[in-house]
Amino acid sequence: MPEPGPFTVTHTDGRARRGVLRTPHGVVQTPAFMPVGTAGAVKAVTHRDLLQLGAEIILANTYHLLLRPGDRLIGNAGGLHRFIGWSRPLLTDSGGYQVFSLAQRRSVSEEGVCFRSHLDGSPHLLTPEGATEAQARLGADVAMAFDECTPFPVTKEEALRSMELTTRWGRRARARFLELQAAGDDTAVTNRGQLQFGIVQGGVYPDLRERHAGETLATGFDGYAIGGLSVGEPVELMYEVAGRTAELLPAAGPRYLMGVGTPLDLVEMVGHGIDLFDCVLPTRNARNGQLFTSAGPINIRNARYGADEQPADPECGCYTCRQFSRAYLRHLCAANEITAATLGTLHNLHFYLDTMRRIGEAITFGSFATFRQRFHQQYSRRSHSTQGGAAQLQ
Amino acid sequence: MPEPGPFTVTHTDGRARRGVLRTPHGVVQTPAFMPVGTAGAVKAVTHRDLLQLGAEIILANTYHLLLRPGDRLIGNAGGLHRFIGWSRPLLTDSGGYQVFSLAQRRSVSEEGVCFRSHLDGSPHLLTPEGATEAQARLGADVAMAFDECTPFPVTKEEALRSMELTTRWGRRARARFLELQAAGDDTAVTNRGQLQFGIVQGGVYPDLRERHAGETLATGFDGYAIGGLSVGEPVELMYEVAGRTAELLPAAGPRYLMGVGTPLDLVEMVGHGIDLFDCVLPTRNARNGQLFTSAGPINIRNARYGADEQPADPECGCYTCRQFSRAYLRHLCAANEITAATLGTLHNLHFYLDTMRRIGEAITFGSFATFRQRFHQQYSRRSHSTQGGAAQLQ
Question: Residue B4 has what DSSP assignment?
Fold first, then answer.
């Protein structure tokens, strides 16, 4: 009998699944949303806030940590969990996405990517092996293979070239990962217990996605991610490509849709069999005053909320909505109070995490289709009424 | 038998006292430090953080709230407690200090102060009656009489002129306050249950302080504050003036030293019979990386902490010190993470509030003098070692 994998599907409802991902730092119930803790902190909240919110896993960015404070410093401190004081599961990305979106003067070769830090201009080389080793030093529960992420739009020729490079890089990343695992604790860098996910690219071209899914599965990882989406393409196209790609990934393994998305995206994509998500929307948008509510997003900076004594979302049970009015939240935003970012982030993360919990329950009861329909109806209400209200105010 | 006042001294130890201040929103155990919540929020933390830290009373600035979102808006929302969602005691200052330190193009007349908002340049007139009414609308548990705060240095002539104006303003503020109290709930503005403290000015001139204490007591308030200190004068002079002024204030009433100070100042001034303090130091300095510890202040941004796995203060039991290393806190500061401000503020406020609790216990056990001596010895240790370290690094 083969050793059981790290992932077990416990319930299915159509293509939607509920499952459990086992990691060295505990289990993650899926479908799960991972709050983004770029530099080792989810912006504007504390770890104890995240525990209270029920976050079971957070994501940190290898690129940022590599540049500051450095993966070696973190490794010497006992790894990322210990350095940042977070004892639940962690996922680190490969650095690939940020190298392409943030770094300066990058040049891509077969070996890897040369780039200059966006912080101080210092030169760096990131290779599939190097990204794997850096993530081993960080010691997250889940590491990602180094990939190249194409923008949108991109020609099919370019998408193909990039995808083939990602395949070769994925093989090298996996080989280095397995070497480290085989070496156990005998090497300077250990990745014992760590899982490594491969990333399927291919732009918005169905045949490339299909081919690259095959190549990535052939390399063989502990889980599979869909990358290169939510980079500017129309949302319907994203749904179609992600949905079709998800079908090509093993049903027995975890499927991770990287960098997605809005609450509607999450509901939609769970319906296509996705298990894991990460996105900066709930945290970043909170800092700009956008709050996600059961009736759609609102911008709490709007003057219409100046004397509004209702909670941000009357149907929400989070700390922010239990304790504070829209008028107070708007005031805090207007006064540029840091607490505005904290209260907004607490609410938005609660909304995301609670949505995932409700999705999970719906799957268990076989009522996901009904949940999805009602969620859409309710969530789209305010989008209309807000626009109407905004028009009236103008 | 006269009605008992709002304040009871429960223990004395030399001139240091322990007591209880009764307010409409509950009791405050003194000596107490009031975290500053300028615009209705203590910067970088949430109210639930403050409750966990054991803060029994916070201060809000009338000047800031008057300009944004407006005292009438807050009054219409049911008062400041309800507007900001804080159910424990609140103190509002009179606006006088900020009018002199922040507002633009101010002109002082017998009637009050004309000024322009530092936010949008809009013109405002603040009078003793107006400040009293604004604070009645805000509905804090403790309101302050409108005063003029002189800078340091100031001529005796100018200090005398200003002090006499503050006496006349104090009488008008008290008269309006008592009118509102007598009117009960029949007027548009009610201040039922609110306490009003008078402010003793007089610069650093002992005879002026003595004369003004007499004038302020003659007006008659529910408590007395010492204003106009910590505005640039040498700390020893501040101790001397505050100490001598405190002796002139009724032993049966609460004594509040406004805008003071460092941890050493608090210990020293409790020893001179002060009961209440407020200061932006623990919150503002946390946002700049300065952490107050039992061995003196440290600046966590310093490169020496880059790989330091100790907590900020090894003797501290706060969330920040229980969970995080200096290296992580320094990293968060370097990365400009909002969470750095939050964790630093949590620590500094814990240090201040815990120091006040320890002072209170020492007074109960009659060991305040020993406590004071040990606190000084321990707190001054790092001041030397830090300077030495800083010198080495330069």
Answer: P
